[in-house]
């Protein structure tokens, strides 16, 4: 009974996560499990996965293998590395996504991670051409965004009194700056650059740039592909084309309404929706 209750609570907590954070945590944990399984079969397999998708701070590699600036964020060097990143992402990222919406959140997260990796190319001649893995640069961008949105929010740390978010994040950045160039194998320049890019993106969002609109074309393409697949799957075998046409007209109307609501969320956040729009979003999400 206790195990069932704990399992159900865990499922509810997971399903209750904002969509972007839930997706990112799932991908990171899934890739880490793959790393572990490959390592059990043969350490060479796990190494081959890292060699194929880690980021190498060399302009030639970045130019001809650009996917590495994205894929390196989903690889981790150990359990602690993964848990540390995912806890900070869950802890601070939830409030950021709920305030800005999933698209704007995703732009800041990916922008900080990619920007941190690319800046490492500039710093590599001084700090070394070492491969980089981990979501830390992206997570630092989200942490900075949290501190900008909720600067006085008290953060509880072990054995310490409550500290305001701005000081916690500033302290973590200061530690990385002090240890920059150390031989502990941590890509601290990626952390610092990710924090810097996160700050710039958050400032841009606060000035009204609407970062979420960058992902609207991707999202619309995804929904179109999904609708085409669903229509083909549900198409009847007889020739009553008038009923198929009616369904397609309704789908297109609902999709247009959904696109408008999602665009509004990207600009003003979820709280910017009216009660009617929130109800409509819930109804459409159940259909999708």
TrEMBL record:
One Pfam family in the UniProt entry: DUF6576
Signal peptide extent: none
GO molecular function terms listed in the Swiss-Prot or TrEMBL record: serine-type endopeptidase activity
Any single GO CC term annotated in Swiss-Prot or TrEMBL for this entry: membrane
Transmembrane helix as UniProt keyword: yes
Protein location: Membrane
Superkingdom assignment: Bacteria
InterPro entries, alphabetized: DUF6576 (IPR046483), Peptidase_S54_rhomboid_dom (IPR022764), Rhomboid-like_sf (IPR035952)
Protein name, per record: Rhomboid family intramembrane serine protease
Membrane disposition: Multi-pass membrane protein
Lineage: Bacteria, Pseudomonadati, Balneolota, Balneolia, Balneolales
Residues in Peptidase S54 rhomboid domain copies: 65-201
Keywords from the UniProt entry: Hydrolase, Membrane, Protease, Transmembrane, Transmembrane helix
Parts of the chain that traverse the membrane: 21-41, 69-92, 104-126, 132-150
PANTHER family recorded: PEPTIDASE S54 RHOMBOID DOMAIN-CONTAINING PROTEIN, RHOMBOID-RELATED PROTEIN
UniProt entry tagged with the keyword Protein transport: no
Organism in which the protein naturally occurs: Fodinibius halophilus
Domain DUF6576 as annotated: residue spans: 253-287
Chief location: membrane
């Amino acid at each position: 009974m206790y195990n069932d209750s704990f399992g159900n609570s865990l499922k509810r907590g997971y399903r209750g996560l904002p969509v972007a954070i839930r997706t990112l945590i799932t991908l990171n944990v899934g890739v880490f499990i793959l790393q572990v399984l490959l390592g059990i079969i043969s350490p060479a397999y796990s190494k081959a996965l890292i060699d194929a998708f880690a980021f190498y701070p060399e302009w030639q590699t970045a130019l001809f293998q650009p996917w590495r600036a994205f894929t390196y964020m989903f690889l981790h060097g150990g359990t602690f590395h993964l848990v540390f990143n995912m806890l900070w992402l869950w802890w601070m990222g939830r409030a950021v996504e709920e305030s800005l919406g999933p698209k704007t959140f995703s732009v800041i997260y990916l922008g900080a991670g990619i920007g941190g990796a690319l800046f490492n190319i500039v710093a590599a001649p001084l700090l070394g051409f070492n491969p980089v893995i981990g979501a830390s640069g992206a997570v630092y961008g989200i942490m900075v965004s949290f501190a900008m949105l909720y600067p006085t929010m008290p953060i509880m740390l072990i054995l310490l009194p409550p500290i305001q978010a701005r000081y916690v994040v500033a302290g973590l950045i200061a530690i990385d700056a002090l240890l920059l160039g150390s031989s502990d194998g941590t890509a601290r320049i990626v952390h610092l650059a990710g924090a810097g890019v996160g700050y710039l993106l958050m400032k841009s969002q606060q000035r009204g740039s609407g970062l979420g609109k960058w992902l609207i074309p991707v999202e619309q393409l995804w929904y179109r592909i999904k609708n085409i697949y669903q229509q083909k799957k549900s198409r009847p075998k007889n020739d009553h084309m008038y009923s198929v046409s009616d369904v397609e007209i309704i789908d297109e109307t609902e999709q247009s309404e959904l696109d408008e609501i999602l665009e509004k969320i990207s600009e003003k956040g979820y709280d910017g929706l009216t009660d009617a729009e929130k109800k409509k979003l819930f109804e459409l999400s159940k259909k999708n």
